[in-house]
Amino acid sequence: MESEQLFHRGSYRNSYNSITSASSDEELLDGAGVIMDFQTSEDDSLLDGDAAAGTHYTMTNGGSISSSTHLLDLLDEPIPGVGTYDDFHTIDWVREKCKDRERHRRINSKKKESAWEMTKSLCDAWSGWLVVTLTGLASGALAGLIDIAADWMTDLKEGVCLSALWYNHEQCCWGSNETTFEERDKCPQWTTWAELIIGQAEGPGSYIMNYIMYIFWALSFAFLAVSLVKVFAPYACGSGIPEIKTILSGFIIRGYLGKWTLMIKTITLVLAVASGLSLGKEGPLVHVACCCGNIFSYLFPKYSTNEAKKREVLSAASAAGVSVAFGAPIGGVLFSLEEVSYYFPLKTLWRSFFAALVAAFVLRSINPFGNSRLVLFYVEYHTPWYLFELFPFILLGVFGGLWGAFFIRANIAWCRRRKSTRFGKYPVLEVIVVAAITAVIAFPNPYTRLNTSELIKELFTDCGPLESSSLCDYRNDMNASKIVDDIPDRPAGLGVYSAIWQLGLALVFKIIMTVFTFGIKVPSGLFIPSMAVGAIAGRIVGIAVEQLAYYHHDWFIFQEWCEVGADCITPGLYAMVGAAACLESARKKQEGIVGSSRVCFAQHTPSLPAESPRPLKLRSILDMSPFTVTDHTPMEIVVDIFRKLGLRQCLVTHSGTVLGIITKKNMVEHLEELARRTEPLAPPWYHNKKRYPPSYGPDGKPRSRFHHVQLSAAQEQGEGAEEEARLLDSTAL
């Protein structure tokens, strides 16, 4: 009410002048003591203002060089509650943007003074590319290290290479000349734990000893992983993608991207994958890459002192993390742009792509998969799919949706149950129990005993002449009348039927254990387990369709395109389609969407159906105050705020005092006036108070472009002290 009374009385505590009309094409608007340029770029100068202490002070507008105090000094002042961000608070995007503009203006104003200042300006300009390069190099190197260490420790549960302890099972048998086609994984150099401990390679005793050692190593890796997370870096658990999205939206989580989190997550991610738990390492790699980007950003003041600029580096780091996780640089950029980033300017797009390329190049140079390829699952299919196959593809899509719905609901229910049970108070015990159950059930089944990535790779692979898997145990039909391909569709053998039963059990095992595994206090990703569920279901469906086409090739749906002896159906393609369907359906959980409850900001909760979940009442934590900007805010930023936030009004303040209000209608009038390139209107919050001095002086000459405002304190009789503004012509000062 006080500001409204002051408005009707025609008096404010501070009155500000406006500028005269400019003859150039760029119209400037002086609002709230600052000249605001609507058509300026980031490199344009901001206005300086100096204020002396006391009741009598002078403000000088226009960005004169003689000004002693800059906007950056005002922004860096330790104002209580402003400029410093506590844990679990949000950043001020407008303030950070103003700080960066003023820093850029100051560098540009000094770069012509000396060669050293020019060098500093060039270093500042290239610091963005340098920090994303370092982030890409570190992300690629850490991803390669994690892949190599995880493969080695996974094989360590089954045996050891005595000739070279740092070799995994596959590398140990590369140089052996005693391997056979049927048993290519068996070589004298690789020794199982049963051979090493009891000296038996076959028999019940050997099986029991290998079983015990498998459980022992799985529990050891899981216990070590959860202990490191609990003691040194609690933020290292989980996937990290939901938290990365929260941080990129402007939220502060101290320590989540720190050096301890990076080191512990890198180590425990290897241990968690090697323990055999139903989780993946692809999601946490995004967290690892963002930790690298956050650490390297502190080497450059441009990013270490500005939270908004730092989030540009984190956006590029998330693209590099997806690039090394799946070998897809372009996919990493799209993931960063569409899924996790809140502020993504055009320059960040190119820097993200460059960081993803650098990370992918480093990973391929390390060659952790041993096949000189970048992608995690490299397959080639030479047989095209046909129109009839759309029906089983649709069924796989339906299965993927059902799997996603079941997983999200079941995992949410288990997370709620965890809070009320002993597992919630003892996370180490929970990890040990889950790891023990996983190891006990997984060892008898060869498909659950495999590493999840190796399982998906085997399911994607098409049967060829060099494949010795049980999935390729087909009977050769010598009575085929016509041979079209080298490897035609053949009747399934005993190995294929046995593999189908084992895959069915593995499917049930993966579905159940993934629900209980995702959410425990170890690094865990959801991409690979979801792909494994879909790949198993797709492979089973593919084999079924293949046998259906072989035994019933005379049906009308097969007559036109599937001849006898032809390679018509590719089961590996069905596995890939199923993996994609399940991955997309479960992706929402990875992004942090955990429920379907209604969110109510109203005072009274609306009536809901009885079967609907409980609504989330957030009115108590809702900030009901209107959006405000200070009188130092450039007008182009105010225009962006109205456009991007969809505001209808915005308050203008100065040192906590409300000066006026900007409405959406005022912004439209300003934009229309600027489009006509006429004299700009008064500031919207100025309430159309015509205090413009005439454009020309008494002598007929145009007045100076900038004026000065002198504020002094005046005493009123019978009233309190009230400031009075007097507009002085520049010639009078």
TrEMBL record:
Matching InterPro entries: CBS_dom, CBS_dom_sf, Cl-channel_core, ClC, ClC3
First-listed, main subcellular location of the protein, grouped into a coarse class: membrane
Spans traversing the lipid bilayer: 214-236, 256-277, 284-301, 313-337, 386-408, 428-447, 499-520
Residues in CBS domain copies: 622-679
Annotated spans, Disordered: 683-733
Membrane topology listed for this record: Multi-pass membrane protein
Gene Ontology MF terms in the entry: ATP binding; chloride:proton antiporter activity; voltage-gated chloride channel activity
The keyword Coiled coil appears for this protein: no
Segment forming the signal sequence: none
PANTHER family: CHLORIDE CHANNEL PROTEIN, H(+)_CL(-) EXCHANGE TRANSPORTER 3
UniProt similarity note: Belongs to the chloride channel (TC 2.A.49) family. ClC-3/CLCN3 subfamily.
Function description: Strongly outwardly rectifying, electrogenic H(+)/Cl(-)exchanger which mediates the exchange of chloride ions against protons. The CLC channel family contains both chloride channels and proton-coupled anion transporters that exchange chloride or another anion for protons. The presence of conserved gating glutamate residues is typical for family members that function as antiporters.
Listed name of the protein: Chloride channel protein
UniProt organism field: Camelus ferus (Wild bactrian camel)
Lineage, top ranks: Eukaryota, Metazoa, Chordata, Craniata, Vertebrata
Gene it is expressed from: CLCN3
